[in-house]
């Protein structure tokens, strides 16, 4: 077996040359034996003071950032499960549509799901940490161009599930079916195409959503949903505004 020795002062070029020599040998290694130690993670573990001291500055920095106030909501942003429209859902999809329109001003509506929103926001200050808790996933915004028939399918999914967060779309739910569907203030036309802002999890079929799996086109916007929320709230604050999301009848039960 050949032995190699690297001088610690080796140049970058020399190091990459050494790696090239190693990877060009086509030699494979397999372990002669397997040994492992199982570590139980429970209350019997004692804190490692040295390690805690090592990461303390990072922990303090992270906590300071998560506690940073970036906005204020004048109303509690809640999401009751037994109603078709919620303040939290309206806030969420209004933010998505506003951020999506920065890149694509002709985007017409946005869509999310109640299950994707993990906490409610209480009346008062909004922190970075609040928005991380609201959307803890690494989902990214996407623009989907949908046929009118696909929008109809999406509306039927919304109706069948008792209502989901939307912005730019209005509809009624009658006996579990979608009626009076309008996009960007105009009645839905099956022959038209529409531009939707949503996020990759739903665009990929998450939450059993319907109508999104066969878009005319799809563009990834390169922005995480959480970043969009942070930007939206921060810009409202910079403009001297509080979040004051109301119910406006965008989805109603037709009695």
Commentary on this structure:
The structure is a single chain. Strands 5-2-9-4-10 form a five-stranded mixed sheet. Helix 3 crosses helix 7 (about 225-240). Strand 6 and strand 7 form a beta hairpin. It has a single domain (about 70-255), classed as 5'-Nucleotidase, C-terminal domain (5'-nucleotidase,  domain 2). The protein is globular, with a radius of gyration of 26 Å. It is an alpha+beta fold and about 260 residues long. The protein is built from seven helices and eleven strands. Pfam families: 5_nucleotid_C (PF02872). InterPro entries: 5'-Nucleotdase_C, 5'-Nucleotdase_C_sf, 5_nucleotidase/apyrase. One of its GO terms (biological process) is nucleotide catabolic process. It comes from Parapedobacter indicus. GO terms for molecular function: hydrolase activity.
């Amino acid at each position: 077996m050949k032995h190699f020795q690297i001088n610690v002062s080796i140049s970058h070029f020399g190091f990459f040359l050494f790696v090239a020599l190693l990877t060009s040998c086509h030699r494979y290694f397999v372990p002669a034996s397997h040994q492992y130690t199982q570590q139980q993670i429970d209350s019997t573990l004692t804190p490692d003071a040295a390690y805690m001291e090592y990461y303390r500055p990072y922990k303090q920095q992270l906590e300071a950032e998560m506690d940073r106030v970036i906005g204020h909501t004048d109303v509690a942003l809640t999401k009751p499960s037994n109603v078709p429209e919620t303040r939290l859902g309206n806030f969420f999809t209004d933010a998505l549509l506003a951020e999506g329109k920065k890149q694509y001003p002709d985007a017409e509506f946005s869509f999310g799901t109640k299950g994707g929103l993990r906490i409610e926001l209480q009346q008062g200050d909004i922190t970075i940490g609040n928005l991380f808790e609201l959307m803890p996933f690494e989902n990214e915004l996407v623009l989907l161009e949908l046929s009118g028939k696909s929008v109809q399918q999406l509306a039927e999914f919304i109706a069948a599930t008792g209502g989901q967060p939307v912005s730019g779309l209005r509809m009624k739910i009658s006996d579990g079916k979608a009626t009076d569907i309008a996009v960007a203030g105009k009645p839905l036309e099956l022959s038209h195409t529409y531009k939707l802002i949503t996020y990759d999890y739903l665009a990929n079929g998450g939450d059993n959503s319907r109508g999104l799996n066969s878009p005319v086109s799809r563009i990834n916007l390169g922005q995480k949903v959480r970043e969009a929320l942070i930007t939206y709230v921060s810009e409202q604050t910079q403009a001297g505004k509080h979040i004051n999301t109301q119910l406006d009848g965008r989805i109603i039960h037709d009695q």
